[in-house]
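Why predict the complex rather than its parts? Because the way molecules touch one another can change local conformation, and only a joint prediction can capture that. The input here totals 599 residues.
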Amino acid sequence: MAWFKREKKGIITSTEEKKEAPDGIWNKCPNCKKPLHYAEQVENKYVCHYCGYQLRIGSKEYFSILFDDNDFTELFPNLRSGDPLEFVDTKPYKDRLEENYAKTGLNDAIRSGHGKINGQDLVIACMDFNFIGGSMGSVVGEKIARSIDYCIEHRVPFLMISKSGGARMMEAAFSLMQMAKTSAKLALLSKAKIPYISLLTDPTTGGVTASYAMLGDINISEPGALIGFAGPRVIKETIKKDLPKGFQTAEFVLEHGFLDFIVDRREMKAKLSSFLKMMAN
Amino acid sequence: MNTSFDFEKPIAELLQQIEKVKQVEEKTKVDMSATLAELQEKLESAKKEVYSNPSGWQKVQISRHPDRPYTLQYIEMICDDFIEMHGDRTVKDDKAIVGGFGSINGRTVMIIGHQKGTNTKLRQYRNFGMANPEGYRKALRLMKLAEKFNKPVVTLIDTPGAYPGLEAEERGQGEAIARNLLEMSVLKVPVLCFVVGEGASGGALGIGIGDRVYMFENTWYSVISPESCSSILWRSWDFKEKAADCLKLTSENMYSNKLIDGIIPEPLGGAHYDPAAMAETLKAKIVEDLDALCSRDIDELINERIEKFCAMGVVQEG
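Output of the joint prediction:
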């Protein structure tokens, strides 16, 4: 029975001949736990085609879904955080930043781009949750402020896609003041009568909810997104009761009157461009 | 002083000694004035030593001292007349934020501030100074009223945070604060803000956008309380002193980081040692600033206000 007997021991394929194993092609839907193929995800706008769950995605994916042919000019791409307080918790903030630059390939928790959606100009600023929990520090505030200035100067509507745990603790009061800064700039945008759409995605909480995310001419969201000011754990500890089912979901927030509508990511672009068209005509 | 902190121990001990000596003097009728004078001198130097350079955490403690004056007490001391107004005209009246028209040296001013209680029952009634959305909406209603009649606005900030409750979420805590930030930044009357106690995060900022933002000497202002910061970053409350240092939340830190416009000095040991003197300092500052700001062109003032907040933040251009 020598035909299945191994003649040489060990791995004999040389490194050059090795075939790349496909990595990250399959992953599991966090909601229904069914396996999703990457190509299918892209095609389905990162929505689970079994249960409709809207997977958490970043600026790269949102830009590719919304901008025509994924064609856009990135605005203020090179802003990075200083470390004004020289903050050190379990590790220095500087090291934390370096790790996140390396891990995500991003410069901070936000990117901004100017492109067209179905032929109409739009500036989109989109937050990246992978970068320190999408936390809002000086860079996030500054980039939003400059994007708004850009919109006023070029008279282009502004879409803000929020996805954040709130203010960045390592920049303490500097983070807090970004709430003031972005809200003040939005007052100017409003005065210039340029449409501002705020899209709150899963999750949007804390200082982000309490500033630019809630100040849209229209506030919209995706199905099932967590939206709130205080986090669910904090509220539970405060009231010492279990929270009702569906508390702080987009549907809950819509029901209480703080959203204009909820739209599935697969219909997002069509709905946004129809709103923009109505504003322009 | 019925409450003293660990770091005030030397002072408390001296006060006790003085008290004892006085009792002995009364009982025995022996002249102890020399001893008393010596103890008084020691007390003064101990006070100077203890209070000359309090740490971040010590300031947080002083800012929370139960004897510190709150908004209504300041109003009583600085106004010739005051009419309190209630309600957000939508849901209810929030007891954690108070406000109304007051008269300071004959000038009508809209005064709005967080209010804490002075005993257990009142503390609950005031929800420990933690406002619900109605509080922020009442504040905005009053500011709009002031704008309509061209009266300047003064806010006094003292809150451990906006209330994190179920109803607060249902009624849009985030939206209420956000709306105030936007509206205050373009309010067409001068706005002065004073952090008189605790300045915790969005709950403080929600009435904190002004042409001049000041902190009382022994107060704190940051994005989170040192306790919560410690529990999030170190997963325990034991690092609150360290967190207080890291957050750079004192008036000196905030001023040197250009996040506030000035520091209002307090009586030695804190505002609670001499509320009347504290109120006098506050009143003088309000009068001085309003004299200067009320004659300014309002559009220019609003531009400066917006630019001031927009200049905050540290970024590097790569």
